[in-house]
Specification:
Layout: H1 8-13, H2 19-32, H3 36-48, H4 54-66, H5 73-84, H6 88-101, H7 107-124, H8 133-142, H9 148-165, H10 175-189, H11 196-209, H12 214-217, H13 220-233, H14 239-255, H15 264-277, H16 280-306, H17 323-338, H18 355-370, H19 373-385, H20 395-408, H21 415-432, H22 438-454, H23 467-480, H24 485-501, H25 515-526, H26 536-553, H27 559-576, H28 584-609, H29 613-620, H30 623-634, H31 643-656, H32 664-676, H33 681-698, H34 706-718, H35 727-741, H36 749-769, H37 775-798, H38 801-807, H39 812-824, H40 831-847, H41 852-857, H42 861-869, H43 875-890
Length: 904
């Protein structure tokens, strides 16, 4: 039996003001982890012991919770495995201790015990190793003799358990238990319950249990009673209960929208009361309800458009009941009233949520759903207030609210309506950038960005901006960018959206004459520190993103100016890596700046690589200094690889081509480390993508590194801990390596072909079972197909014809069967997969001898390619493949028959 260690002194020292004492205590606690049973038992015993102080008991509980759960999935699984390995007697002692702690005299300790119980339930209930947990909790919750504190904590624990189990795909709570839980919860929500803490706990528990209440919400009587209890909660005397009840209604609107028609009239009446008269925390939740309803209706409109040709569109659960549209005449005035409830002195985006922001968000979502009808309800308010100047100190609120309302409705209405609005408002808004109130200027800059984002598309005729009007607009924005930091951030956003308007404009770009002045102003803005304060990072991010958008929108006549960005970016990047990482928070900020600068270099190199050799040379002449700076970023912080730096290296490969080989000796160990860092999904994904970039650039010069590279890729492919989304990219990377090294890829063929055969089988199996409406499964199947096809294509095109005949012709039959399965799949069609399949059929026809018989045996080939040729996007590829197949058939049947398996 594990020993209980008295950890009181350690827990006390861990909270000491003395840093040395804290570190020593933390080391002592860490040492106890080496004996998991004693460690867990000691923590739970300390938590349960009423003789101990509240602070140390709470800390013991938090440490115990963290010993059972983690955000990182791999660590979470390891902690669960550690608990599973604990002996049954110790487990039982901990369980009993936690249940008893729910009755502690301390509310803080009870709360902590409820949190720990939920984490333990997430491990035990799916494994059926603590089947009596929920019954034990229900017994305590339903007992009339239970102390009030115990009932609070038990309901809280039930809610947390539901929250934890709701994260699983399977339902681990049976309907009988759900019914019992809801009965216990609703008993605590009764309007005649005088214990407000109990009503809060019960209402919160219902909120967490909603995901399991589908059967109950399908029963009219049960649903009516539950809705009645929640609506009663919105009228409770305690604002905490009212807020919890509205939070519950918000989740009900998301989970059970289709069940709401009978209640929405009452809910809107409650909304008006809460928004106009209740505490701010309650009003915010009432506004959130209508944002949720609007989002749900927007999604239903889109979903029904997508499935309009199927029976699914007739499903009652997918019907849009148009609650927002029906309430619009009353809802819009209610929202507009709230827009004037800005925070006093809210002249920067400090993240504070208030009724004005909540109402503006709801207004924007409503506009998205209903479109044009919202304009006639909002514009009188805008016209009445946007120039308000009565001499009152509060006039700025009206001007700001009117501007905010205008900006909020710019997505949803028709192009014609929006065009009229934008043309009428643009000039006035540019003038309003000089409003005496900084909040009005801030909102005005944001609204201008919204106009450029939502109203300046190609479909607008005549265009909102042309060569003549663009100059004055840019001039005003470049003057406004020198304003206070939070306003400058919005101006950067406006410039970014303005640039994106011209991203696909035919050359010469209307932006070209302004490129230097815009980019110069943005770089100066990004360097602002003294007046930016806490806004500095956000301002830098928006400024650099605007630089990137201006570069993307530039045409190649501005190539010299784009190239001049490169040494500037390199210099700033060297500055950002000059000092080693400091404390974690400062290191994160430095890493963010590094990432932004890498992004600027990446976008500039991508733009220049689109041009002629002379234009690419403008970037290539800076390649050494760029790579030096990127290597510094990539090695700046031990144990991590900067994702944005990997992307920038990828862009550099397109600039340098084969000359990138001179960096391989220094760069490959970093790439290797990034591939090994599969716990960081995006880092590993970017690294795999980088493999393709490097191979395409340096060709056969990658061969000295291929043994290590292929070993790593194959290991990642076979490692169950590597995220599945990375694996299709790895398959595609095999094709890139094969294309680069040619016949020397035969060293790896047997392993790669075996993997591809296995992946194709998995792909066919998953495609057969993927649900029609399971987008994730469909997307993954198509990603897997794409990776397999690209790997084969790389081998067919990389190996010599002799080696293709020697090694690959024996797999042609199974390969065509795989493509046939793709062509026959009606539920997972993807145009990029079809393009790859068509191209590979052409590769088979052109690379292998003696395929005429095989194509005759596979009559799907020509109809599939003819069907592909009807699609404009892939027509050229399909027609080429048809030509190759016809040529192969014309060559006759003289070569050896296809289908005999050859050892690779």
């Amino acid at each position: 039996m594990a020993q209980v260690v008295d950890i009181t002194a350690l827990l006390q020292a861990a909270q000491s003001a003395d840093a040395a004492a804290r570190q020593q205590a933390e080391a002592g606690i860490k040492q106890l982890e080496s004996q998991p049973e004693s460690y867990l038992l000691s923590l739970s015993s300390h938590l349960a012991n009423e003789a101990n102080g509240v602070d140390t008991r709470r800390l013991a509980g938090l440490i115990l919770k963290n010993a059972l759960d983690a955000r990182d999935e791999a660590k979470k699984a390891a902690l669960a495995g550690q608990w599973v390995a604990v002996s049954d007697p110790v487990k039982q002692q901990i369980r009993v201790g936690l249940l008893s702690t729910l009755g502690s005299a301390s509310a803080e300790v009870r709360h902590t015990a409820a949190l720990v119980l939920a984490k333990l339930a997430a491990i035990e209930i799916p494994r059926s190793t603590w089947p009596d947990l929920i019954p034990a909790l229900l017994e305590r919750a339903n007992s009339s003799g239970s102390p009030a504190g115990l009932r609070h904590a038990t309901l809280e624990a039930l809610g947390y358990v539901c929250e934890e189990l709701g994260a699983f795909e399977e339902d681990y709570i049976d309907q009988e238990q759900v019914n019992s839980m809801l009965t216990a919860v609703v008993a605590g929500m009764r309007p005649d319950e005088t214990d407000m803490d109990l009503r809060i706990a019960a209402t919160t528990a219902l909120n967490n249990a909603l995901e399991f209440a589908h059967t109950n919400f399908s029963n009219d009587q049960e649903r009516n009673y539950l809705m009645q209890m929640v609506c009663h909660g919105t009228q409770a005397s305690d604002p905490r209960v009212r807020r919890a009840a509205w939070e519950c209604l918000v989740r009900i609107a998301g989970f059970y929208y289709s069940k709401l028609p009978a209640y929405m009239a009452d809910i809107f009446a409650l909304t008006q009361q809460a928004v106009r008269s209740d505490e701010e925390e309650v009003a915010l939740q009432a506004l959130e309800l209508w944002s949720t309803v609007a989002e749900e209706e927007f999604e239903r409109d889109n979903s029904n458009d997508a499935t309009s040709s199927t029976a699914d569109s007739d499903n009652a659960d997918s019907v849009n009941h148009n609650f927002v549209r029906a309430a619009l005449p009353q809802l819009v005035p209610l929202l507009l009233e709230q827009l004037t409830k800005q925070e006093d002195g809210a002249d920067s985006d400090d993240g504070a949520w208030n009724p004005s922001l909540a109402a503006g968000t709801a207004l924007g979502l409503a506009a998205n759903v209903v479109g044009d009808p919202i304009v006639e309800l909002v514009m009188p308010f805008v016209q009445e207030n946007i120039q308000r100047n009565t001499g009152s100190e509060e006039d700025w609120r009206a001007r700001d609210a009117a501007t905010f309302a205008f900006g909020s409705i710019l997505q949803g209405p028709s192009v014609e309506t929006l065009g009229t609005l934008a043309r009428s408002g643009l000039g006035f808004l540019l003038t309003a950038l000089k409003d005496p109130n900084p909040q009005v200027r801030n909102t005005t800059a944001w609204t201008l960005g919204r106009i450029f984002e939502c109203v300046s598309g190609e479909e607008l005729n005549p265009p909102l901006l042309d060569a003549n009007s663009l100059g004055p607009v840019i001039g005003v924005l470049l003057e406004a960018i020198r304003d206070e930091a939070h306003i400058a951030e919005k101006v950067c956003y406006a410039l970014s959206q303005l640039a994106s308007v011209f991203r696909y404009a035919p050359p010469p770009s209307p932006l070209s004459p302004f490129f230097e002045s815009i980019v110069g102003a943005l770089l100066e803005t990004a360097a602002r520190q003294s007046d930016a304060g806490g806004d500095a990072v956000r301002l830098q991010m928006q400024a650099f993103e605007a630089v990137n958008e201006v570069v993307r929108a530039s045409s190649l006549e501005a190539a010299d100016l784009v190239a001049r960005l490169l040494p500037v970016g390199v210099g700033k990047l060297m500055e950002a890596t000059a000092n080693p990482p400091g404390v974690p928070e400062a290191a994160e900020r430095q890493a963010e700046v590094q990432g932004l600068l890498c992004g600027v270099l990446q976008v500039a190199m991508q733009k220049l690589s689109e041009g002629s050799d002379d234009i690419r040379h403008l970037a290539a002449q800076h390649a050494d200094s760029i790579m030096q700076a990127l290597l510094r970023v990539l090695t700046w912080r031990a144990g991590s690889v900067h994702e944005e730096a990997l992307l920038a290296v990828g862009a550099l490969t397109y600039v340098t081509g084969r000359d990138f080989s001179k960096y391989l000796e220094a760069y490959f160990p970093i790439l290797e480390r990034a591939l090994q860092n599969y716990q960081e999904k995006e880092t590993c994904q970017f690294a795999v993508s980088n493999v393709g970039d490097v191979c395409r650039a340096v060709d056969e010069q990658i061969f000295p590194y291929c043994d290590r590279l292929m070993t790593l890729l194959l290991q990642n492919l076979q490692n169950n801990e590597v995220h599945r989304d990375i694996k299709p990219q790895i398959l595609s990377a095999f094709g890139d390596v094969a294309m680069a090294v040619g016949d020397r890829f035969e060293n790896y063929l047997s392993h790669v072909v075996q993997v591809l055969q296995s992946a194709a089988g998995l792909c066919i199996e998953q495609a057969a079972t993927a649900a029609r409406d399971d987008e994730d499964s469909v997307d993954y199947v198509n990603a897997l197909r794409g990776g397999i096809l690209e790997a084969w294509a790389g081998m067919f095109n990389g190996l010599s014809k002799q080696k293709v005949d020697q090694y690959l012709r024996g797999y042609a039959t199974s390969l065509l069967e795989f493509i046939e399965a793709i062509s026959a799949d009606q539920t997972s069609q993807d145009i990029s997969v079809w393009r790859s399949a068509a191209a590979l059929l052409g590769d088979v026809a052109s690379s292998l001898s003696g395929v005429a018989t095989l194509f005759q045996q596979k009559p799907f080939v020509k109809p599939f390619l003819q069907h592909c040729a009807q699609n404009e996007t892939i027509r050229e590829t399909a027609q080429w493949a048809l030509h190759m197949v016809a040529a192969a058939e014309a060559a006759g049947l003289n070569a050896a028959p296809i289908g005999l398996q050859t050892e690779a």
